[in-house]
## 1
Amino acid sequence: MWGWLFHRVTGIILAFGLIYHFFMMHFMEAEAYSYQSVIQRLSEPSWKLFNIVFLISALYHGFYGINGLVKEYVKSEGLKNFLKFFMFILSLALAFFGIKIVIF
Amino acid sequence: MRYRWNTGSIAWLVHRITGIILTFYLIAHIYVLSHLKDPEAYEKLMSMMKNPIIKFGELILFALVLKHVFAGIRITLLEMGVSTKYQKQLAYAGALIIAVLWFIGAFYFLQEVF
């Protein structure tokens, strides 16, 4: 129940975050995309917070969704458990690397 | 699981397929961003983004994201108690909004190339 609720909450975060992301990526003047200004922007704490929330939401939402598909479609118990474990580790690893990219 | 092929089940199936693709894209996205801190790699990446094939990929990605977001909104509305009587209308309304937003977005995306 909580898992599903969180899935929906992250979905809403992602929908609004993506609008922002989309405008940031396509609607600013060319200068805003130079290496200097991108690194400058990424070093601001507010952007770090946004990016971490965005990252965790996306990972949770994506892997919760796939987890549901595995539960529903994979018949073999062994394979199901393996995939669930694998995805759990994979999502943790991606969260780790993602946060590392954001913070440093 | 068996599907009866109607608007609702196709929408649900497409929602799942786009979800899987977007999750794989997310993994690739995190991997690409891990090279961002190096100025040379950054310039290389940005010039690659101007490549028409990549732009085409971006347009497909944009369509997938739109589809997934609006299908998600539709599902949420249905679960919040909007009568399932209207689920077809919701699907068609969603498709229309997606098409309009996609064309507007595509116009701006392609301006970056031409």
## 2
Amino acid sequence: MRDELPPRAGTQDFVRPFVITGGRTRATDDSLRVETMVQAIGRPGADVAFEHARIVDTCFEPCSLAEIAAELRMALGVVVVLVGDLVEAGYLETTYSDPVEIELSALTRMIERVRAL
Amino acid sequence: MFGRSEAAMRPHRRVQSVKLVVAGGFGVGKTTFVSAVSEIPPLTTEAAMTSESRGVDDATMVDQKTTTTVAMDFGRITVDESLVMYLFGTPGQERFAFMWDDLCDGALGAVVLADTRRLADSFVALDYFEARDTPFVVAVNHFQGSYHYPIPEVREALGVLDHIPVVACDARERETVKVALITLLQHVYDLRRAALVR
């Protein structure tokens, strides 16, 4: 499986994914999911680490954690931890939608949208 | 770990997101299904394995090699400026089933793709969503050259309950994938409305 990974930009050798989180595999905020929407609300200063700053740059417009991971070619678990850091520091705002709170009117809009595809 | 940002760059725009999961056996056509309706070519994320994977390696990995990442494909349908739908394909191989909890938590519903040549491959997904009470529908993917069994026969062979919709589709044909998705959304709608009336 490891052999099949696509080459990552700027790396020749395999890098353990959680190196850039300092070994943390869990975000401080456990509500973050693959579909959680993230948006940049603050501009990172020079004190923000490179990988963190790349994430803020990626979500100038609202996008999901999954899209950040795909765009930056970072493992999802790593993105979850770094996004958690950035939310705590006030650079990012998240919108998590609990499926239970999805209203019938939203379901109708979804059905209409798919029908119009 | 670093200071708060100096000034807010822009106001937060609330966009609701909804996650739908496309599950089924390995090679059943999940990514094809997603790409048929996605407004972007399916993207791939790699989910690094964390502590949940302990034991899985020992029990099922044939060569004891440590796998570090699992690829998941997903697509996107923008409903309007305040609502986005994401379609996630589950990792197909059974040895990655431990990842399903992370992926399926918070899912609005699921499409279980079935291949009539390998119906048993979809049992894992059916059992999973039944046990979790995640609303789901079954879409029978008709591959070219595969015999088209009547839907009632497939339903019986799969052993799904009467109220679970079963539809036929061809994952390469957008119109049939749309029907499968609408069937799921309508099923979720009906369940919600019934719960409200009760």
